[in-house]
């Protein structure tokens, strides 16, 4: 434990379990190309929607390392969202996030819609995603949610793993 | 949601791709854009569908035609969707697979 206070993030008025995850359309990046896709169109089964800080930030790197280690993308669709551009997303997918697809939301409008936006101190003009996970069923109903309350923060991976297990049965 | 029949593989700001887009828009033909990387070696998907890595390349699910080379694509689009006569256009597209 550090002997100083970890930075708390302001309370997030985020989408809650039981709500339908709002639809949006953004470029969705795979290892091969990107094209505009709507979430409603992409979700056709259990889906883990992961909001994360911009590609290259250690929180994004560690998140995908863990997702890869746990092999979640083999069990359910894993969709990431960050403010990074499609080119940056492709770089990320070159090295990690096997089987993952990434939405590009440079204006952070999707992050705002989900209530997980974060104005970064010391990077003027940049609003990005705070770390957050929304586990969705095939109807886009949120079945499990975690949103970072501190900076930095990571989801409770074991708890999330349990929720994924419950969802896919 | 119905998907457009035509998929255009394109590269951001590639003039040959924009040439094809202009014709698609003129003819009011719906299409979806799939953007690929500038790096030639990173374009396996284009190679897989068209046999070469150059863009633009289109896939027309309606006619089963896949082609690259903007000149050929423009000619194909005008022939197939130019709207002179519906049946003629559909017939003409059979020859477009060359
Ligand atoms: N003759 C082609 C030229 C297209 C072209 O040069 N495209 C560039 C991108 S702007 C490209 O893909 N270059 C790599 C290659 O030709 O393999 C056409 O008219 O479609």
TrEMBL record, chain A:
InterPro entries per the UniProt record, alphabetical: AhpC/TSA, Thioredoxin-like_sf, Thioredoxin_domain
MF-aspect GO terms: antioxidant activity; oxidoreductase activity
Matching PROSITE patterns: THIOREDOXIN_2
Designated name of the protein: Peroxiredoxin
Domain of life, per lineage: Archaea
Domain Thioredoxin: 15-169
UniProtKB/TrEMBL annotation, chain B:
Family matches, as InterPro entries: GLR_AS, Glutathione_S-Trfase_N, Thioredoxin-like_sf
Domain spans labelled GST N-terminal: 4-85
Gene3D superfamilies listed in its UniProt record: Glutaredoxin
A Pfam family this chain is assigned to: GST_N_3
PANTHER family named in the record: THIOREDOXIN FAMILY PROTEIN
Protein name (database record): Glutaredoxin
Species in which this protein is naturally found: Halorubrum vacuolatum (Natronobacterium vacuolatum)
